[in-house]
Amino acid sequence: MDLVISKNFTLWAYVVITYMCFISFWHSSLFVFKKTKNTVKTQRYLLKFVSIILWNLMLFYFFFIDGSFNEKYLFVGIAFSIIALVIYWVCVKSLGDFKLAVIHGNIESNKIYDRGIYKYIRHPFYTSYICCYLGLIICIPKLPVILSVGILLYIYLYAAYSEERHFLSSDTKVKYAEYRKKTGMFFPKLF
């Protein structure tokens, strides 16, 4: 108990805000995305498994391995987590009742969602995940965390590129190509 009480406020703030990101990300799998018949289950299970490992690694380092956080950069981690939370909830708000296919799911290629944050970014949910996880690497530069984040980043990048290939080979390829010219993949296009 002494270990938990002795943690400084900034470290506590980082852990709480980042865990709010994790809970939000879990929210998306339950309420935001729809599962389809052709969802690739092995990839989904790998994503969930690695995510849960990473989320628990953070708590493990926090409670049991003192000094494992890079305390000089906690404010950077807090900033990344806050940005991730804002982007995530702006995505949820932008979608309203519209449901996207779950990652590695069967995409409805006749529907290009381009409202709200999607006017600027094609994969804003992935952007929120990436921001949070990059903050984790900065704050906990330990090999298990780096490997877990690396696997998750690969999964998100692979999914984004697969989704784009799907749209570009569908009946909406011309409309999607125009949409790509106006938007950034993970960040707004500046030029």
How would you portray this structure in words?
The protein has 191 residues and is mainly alpha-helical. The chain has one domain. The protein has seven helices and two strands. It has a two-stranded parallel sheet. Helix 3 packs antiparallel against helix 6, helix 4 packs antiparallel against helix 5 and helix 5 packs antiparallel against helix 6. The longest helix is centred in the C-terminal third of the chain and has 26 residues. The protein is globular and about 55 Å long. 28% of the residues are buried. The mean pLDDT is 84.
Structural class: mainly alpha
Instruction: Tell me the number of helical segments per DSSP (H or I, 4 or more residues long).
Output: 7
Instruction: Write down the Rg.
Output: 18 Å
How would you sum up the major sheet?
2 strands, parallel
Indicate the mean pLDDT: 84
Element-by-element helix/strand order: HHEHHEHHH
Proportion of residues in β-strands: under 5%
In short:
This protein has 7 helices and 2 strands, in the order ααβααβααα. The chain has helices at 2-6, 9-32, 41-64, 74-95, 124-139, 143-168, 173-182, and strands spanning 33-34, 100-101.
Write the layout of secondary structure elements.
Elements: H1 2-6, H2 9-32, E1 33-34, H3 41-64, H4 74-95, E2 100-101, H5 124-139, H6 143-168, H7 173-182
Parallel strand pairs: 1-2
Helix pairs in contact: 2-4, 3-6, 4-5, 5-6
Features:
7 helices; 191 residues; 66% helix; mainly alpha
